[in-house]
Amino acid sequence: MFIARQPIFDEGLNVFGYELLFRQGQKSTGFDGQSAQAASASVLLGLYEAGVSQLVENKQAFINFDQEFIHSDALELIDPGHMVVEILESVVVDQALIARIKAVKEKGYRIALDDFDADFNSYPLVPYADIIKFDLMATPLNTIHQEIFEAKKLGKTLLAEKVETQQEYLQAKTLGFQLFQGYFFSKPLIAGQSCSKSPTKLQYFRLISELHQDDPSYEKLAEQIQMDVLLSYRIMRMVSARSGKNQLKSIKTALAYMGLDEIERWLTTLMLQDLAKDKPLELMKLSIFRSHFAQELSDLMQMPKSCQHHAYLMGLFSCLDGILDQSIEEALTDMVIPDVIKSALIEQDGALYPTLHLMIAYEKGDWPEVENLSQALAIDEIELYQKYQYAIQQGVSVLAMIS
User: Fold this and answer.
1) What is the pLDDT of residues 131-156, one digit of tens each?
2) CA of 281: how far to CAs of 54, 163, 187, 256, 395, in Å?
3) Per-residue pLDDT averaged across 99-122, rounded?
């Protein structure tokens, strides 16, 4: 079973929940002899066994329910405190559906109406809905002012999905939307003065450049780090927590204790944290998550260890354009990194690009593309999903380490 997640933000760009996008099997074209409800039950059972709270980090899980899925007895496997029942626009509204929704609400589940484009005052499910989702591509903001007014009057929570630009986010927020879903948070807002020459960025890039020398020098790295009191403190604090009773006499000693690979991961993660101060935390989280996912995918593809390391950096830097509000070419200008990373991120080409392509298709829930790429790369779907889960767990662990 494939499962991907897409963040849903509140007005402060904090993550409110994640919509879970799933498909039961890579090769399945139907229910393989099962009833629709049995197939739906198996999906819910899979979510239950995977640990929904781990997938969504104790946020709300928005899960799509179609005509048959909503009647599955397995629905109650998921704690109502963790799940929003999202009714797809394709469902046929009848008395059985209304009775089921009433029963689900009585158990404490919240109801969302997906891709709403019906008559607000006459649609039978509106009275039972807690959240109304508007697809801004199908129903642009300038066409739904009346629906927004009516929904707010009834105290409904408004969710704007497929928000692709910051301008759309701000406009929807002004009109009264409280929740937002889309890729606007990871896209650059090209405005104002470029920060490509900022001291923070250049300092980190000098360190990363030294790490990519044929023979990196702990002495030179220590000299660079010692120029920044906060950076020195952070490395000594982190290594002290790991070294136990072993005394750390200098920054150079601490660096040697960490090792070059660990130093690079730590520095690049800190760089993202510093550069993304005014950005949603989810953007930094996505970068860290992608770094682990990309490395795990390269491992599945049996790439050499050096390529796996490059895949890690490629995933980590894949959101730099959104973090720095620059094109990806500008964001990578001062970076002395392997050309294979730049080829994948800038030119969408080269040995690492299939890894990047598969990673982004998966997180968007583009299952046909995921299937094609997985087959081309000889990656098993079960292992792919396991690596996705692992990457989420690793991303959470890294953020906890540097917070």
Assistant:
1) 999 999 999 999 999 999 999 999 99
2) 18, 18, 14, 31, 12
3) 94
Residue that is written with structure tokens 């990578």 in the block: 332
Domain boundary among 162, 186, 210: 186
Measured distance CA(91)–CA(28) in Å, rounded = 22
What Rg value do the Cα atoms of the chain yield, rounded?
23
CA distance 74 to 43: 9
Largest CA distance in the chain: 74
The backbone region for 56, taken as left when phi is positive above 0, alpha when psi lies in -120 to 50, beta otherwise, is alpha
**Residue 283 carries which DSSP code?**
H
Same domain, 157 and 207: no
Residue 61, strand partner residues: 18, 83
> d(Cα 359, Cα 8) in Å, to the nearest integer?
19
Same-domain pairing of 251 and 370: yes
Helix, strand, coil proportions of the chain in percent (round to 5)? 55, 10, 35
pTM for the model stands at 0.82
Segments of 99-244 assigned E as strands? 110-113, 131-135, 157-161, 179-181
- The bridge status of strand 110-113 relative to strand 131-135 is parallel
Q: Single out the residue of 133, 132, 125, 121 nearest to residue 104, CA to CA.
A: 125
Is position 229 within any domain?
Answer: yes
Strands 15-23 and 157-161: unpaired
Q: Greater confidence, 297 or 43?
A: 297
Residue with tokens 């044929």: 214
C-alpha span between 146 and 151 (Å, rounded): 9
Which of 143, 158, 186 lies at the terminal end of a domain, its last residue?
A: 186
Structural domain includes residue 280: yes
Long-range Cβ pairs for the range 83-86 (8 Å, 24+):
83/52, 83/109, 84/17, 84/60, 84/109, 84/110, 84/111, 84/112, 84/130, 84/131, 85/109, 85/110, 85/111, 85/112, 86/19, 86/62, 86/112, 86/113, 86/114, 86/133
